[in-house]
Amino acid sequence: MQALDLLIADHNRVRGLFTQFKSAHENDDTETMSAVALKIFEDLEVHTTIEEEIFYPAIRDTTEDIGETVDEGVQEHHVVKVLMAEIKQLPDGDADWVAKMQVLIENVEHHAEEEESEMFPTLRSKLPSEQLEDLGMRLEERKKQLGAPVLADKIDLTKEELLELAKQQEIPGRSTMSQEELAATVAPA
Ligand SMILES: [Fe+2]
Ligand SMILES: [Fe+2]
Question: CA 152: distance to chain centroid?
Answer without folding.
Answer: 18
